Amino acid sequence: MPRQFFVGGNFKMNGVADSIKSIVSNINKAQRDPSTQVVIAPPAIYLTLTRELADPSVGVAAQNVFDRPNGAFTGELSVEQLKDAKIDWTIVGHSERRVLLREDDDFVARKTKAAIDGGLSVILCIGESLEEREANKTIDVVTRQLGAVAKLLNEQEWSKVVIAYEPIWAIGTGKVATTAQAQEVHAAIRKWLGETISPAVAENTRIIYGGSVSDGNCRELSKEKDVDGFLVGGASLKPAFVDIINSRL
Ligand code: PEP
């Protein structure tokens, strides 16, 4: 079975109720490729609003989740709370959290495991810095990040994971990876999944690209064999998001 094309929208810490309503209404009204799975991630305070307003065919994701079930963890949200709010997805390991909030590979892996145990699907972000790319460490970095997760998940649990390859140097910078750069890393990730987890997991896991994806570059990127969709930041706040959803039309 071919892998379903997946487009995620990460609103980050942008928007207020009015603008979120208008973004969601644009997505609801748009002619969307029915074969693309769409999941949007508003700021936490607007998760319930977004879930109430978004068409049922549009998934809603938290931008983050905590790895513990409850307790004295000021400011955090649990998997159970997200499920209670009818949220079915979470982003985990976004580079902004890895870098600015110093989340390490093991913490990201524990969050991934907790999310899956509690019934969420996960958009797992991985990716290298510019320095790491220039030192030819890209594949080492992404496989190290995946390796931490692989220690905690069994083979079946990978079906709940969409891997977002997001080179840090391309996020929010306007510097998109070339189609060849994206394809090379996606193919290496798939090879690693095949060797480390199983050939079936390699075949079935969606590997999406993130980093300055726009309506101008999405079509070329989407033609690459191992690019199964996108995680979109800035452009997910704009009407152009619909063109990205429709990249393969
Ligand atoms: C992101 O935040 O996941 C992202 C890819 O951002 P942008 O599209 O703005 O580069």
Automatic annotation (TrEMBL):
SUPFAM superfamilies: Triosephosphate isomerase (TIM). Its EC number is 5.3.1.1. It catalyses: D-glyceraldehyde 3-phosphate = dihydroxyacetone phosphate. It holds the Pfam family TIM. Keywords: Gluconeogenesis, Glycolysis, Isomerase. One of its GO terms (biological process) is glycolytic process. The keyword Ligase does not apply. NCBIfam families: tim. Belongs to the triosephosphate isomerase family. Homodimer. This is Triosephosphate isomerase. It comes from Talaromyces stipitatus (strain ATCC 10500 / CBS 375.48 / QM 6759 / NRRL 1006).
